[in-house]
Amino acid sequence: MSTEVADNTSDTESPATYKVIGTRPVRHDGADKVTGKAVYTDDLHVPNMVFGAFVRSPHAHARIVSIDTSEAEKMPGVLATCTSADLPDPWDKVDNLGEGCVNYAHLSGNVLARKKALYKGHAVAAVAATDSYLAQEAARRIKVEYEPLPATMSVQDAMKEDAPLLHDELITHTLGEEPARPSNIASHIQFEKGNIDEGFAAADVVIEREFKTATVHQGYIEPHVSVALWNEDGRLKIWTATQGSFVVRQQMAELLKMPVSQITIVPCEIGGGFGGKISVYEQPVAAVLSRKCGRPVKIMMQRDEVFEATGPTPASFMRVKLGATKDGRLTAGNAWLAFDAGAFPGGVIGPGAMCVFSCYDLPHATVDGFDVVLNKPKTQAYRAPGSTHVAFATECVIDELAERLEIDPIEFRLNNAAKEGTRRVDGPVYPRVGLVECLQAIQNSDHWKSPLTGPNRGRGVACGFWFNCGLKSSVTANVNADGTVTLIEGSTDIGGTRTSIAMQLAETLGITAEDVIPQVVDTDSVGFTDVTGGSRTTFATGLAAHEAALDIQEQMVEQAAKIWECSQDEVTVVNGVYQGNGKSLPFKELAVEADKVGSPIVGRGAVDPQGSTNAFAVNLVDVEVDPETGKVTILRFTVCQDAGKAIHPSYVEGQMQGGSAQGIGWALNEEYFYGDDGHMRNASFLDYRMPTCYDLPMIDTIIVEVPNPDHPYGVRGVGEVPIVPPPPAIANAIYRATGVRFFELPMSPPTVWNAIKGQTTGD
Amino acid sequence: MAIVFIPSQLQKLTGTAQVEVEGNTVREVVTQMDIQFPGIQQRLFDDGQLLPTLQLSVDHVMTRVLSTSVKATTEVHFLPVIGGG
Asked: What is the pTM of this model?
């Protein structure tokens, strides 16, 4: 692997020198992870624990006529059953969870179907029994009578006037006038900038294309799993695999109509999330079963349940039109985007519509976005939600424009790249951002400078954008008697954030990363912390750790003044060394002395940074296409990304490589295959084709560092944007290898083979 | 005073894409805007609060805090909320 870190601080900024930040210490949870000692939820065996299983709809759309649990309840070892009647009546309340919003009536109806089953696999009932096999057998004996209804499985079909309605009273939400009649269009978003008629009139070349993408899943290895214990005193405790323990607590409180203070969420280690482990699924059901049987209940989904009944990311239908002048300036853009929300409103069309032209300085544009319900599982975020879809459309048209204008594809992008002062189509103006620097870093890379030769080979490039966010984070930091610091945090660690947050505390205090002991704790043991998502954790929880370190430093100065019998004003701190009254001690040694004379030193950090930190990534990819099979082999792949500041470069590279690998899977193979009956035909990892190490080359990384001015160490966040550019970069590479442009994902071997064959036969 | 960028779907109410509105905070600006263009607040707020499906961009910083201060050159945009992965 080749890794470069390009320092892109401006002439007016002096590059900071750090002792901890930018180094690569061993991760604090490394030993537990590699020796199998780390505790995941399924490792838990709580005394008297029993097991839950779901009854799921065999129909994609059906009215529930009746549910009879009596036969199951007679089985020895069956302790409780549960249907939607056991959940409190839901309220039509829409809540903002920090990372997106949720309608609790919809959430409750997704957890356990009420009047209708809205997708194949929709949970209808559940049962708790003394072992998991018994629970599954009991679930089979719960009799559900259905009245099947016609299903709608694509956004184009669902938007038709005569489409079967999922929700009889769903009126399209728009800021303008709402239609009188219900439909499957849950919302319509619109942005306008300038005058697109003028913009397209000024263009020498205009290209318009239609694109489709398939439903794909985040594909985390660990299935959804929870243990719930509803105690006799009315308190509820849940151990679970989640990206956000506090957000789970908030959802549970609303769904079960309990105060948050009665609920404790214990986040266990997590085997991947990528946006799919924010919403609750099995947690409320396990809780209700526990309440009914008086014992802790574990529910772990099987893989087919994860595919069919959690939250994949949407399929889409998009139309993108762009115009440019002969000298390579974009003049106007128009986008029409319809995203599949799944069975309930609230998909990712909002950010999709905001991202569609976010890489470019477009003087005139309009964007229309539609959130469409259909008979598939409720969709959820997947790394930069919505942005990968729209980047596929825009970046393919950009590539075609560059080709038509005979301009180098990177130069064309540089001509039009968003930079500080560019106004996005949705309105806001960018502060300092790093897209130009990323494109230039790709231009200067060994990869770009190395010619690609050979038959059936092609090279593609594409850009991607994601907002990243701030939100709430809290930490507490306790200085120990030996001078180490225990860092208590609420951010579940998915990608090494224990260490990246600890490193920021260490840098501020002037100690080593190894001197910090990070602990991810339950919701009773730390202040509110939003989800590990939105590429926010190293940025925002790191900011909280920095604040806690400054708090500690202030208390250490106070203690030093006492010890050295001088005023606090006389104590100075430089690089973690405290000096005063002619004496000097480094942090660790002073902490040992302070422990003997004063009150415990406890630092506090609680932050709620507003705004986006604006991440850009650029991909360069070489492919070879087998004309006999249509198989695309990735020969070489380089991802360049503006990280702001890479706190732990290995973890930044890991995020860039992981996101790229997922983007490659999305581009080439992954898709939900649905039959005419609305059943997913490939609900297993055997048939849902994710890339493995045999499919991927080593992914080269170039980290660009354009510091974020709103963070003391310049952090932007890195987790999401690397998934965005791979599909269009690969599509553009396949075009150069085959002469065929692709407008649909995935570009799987049969699709590519058919297209090549059509080209050669003229079909 | 702030410069409010009117969402395109609400421009029927204002007749223009941008309006300059008096006020020291975002909430005051929206209240004043509703006096000038009756009904606009109802499209953006629910029970006195910003719709949960919306966020603000105030001088290009995303926020949902209605007490955010504004000045004469402040830009206010109404945008969809963003969920991350």
From this structure: 0.96
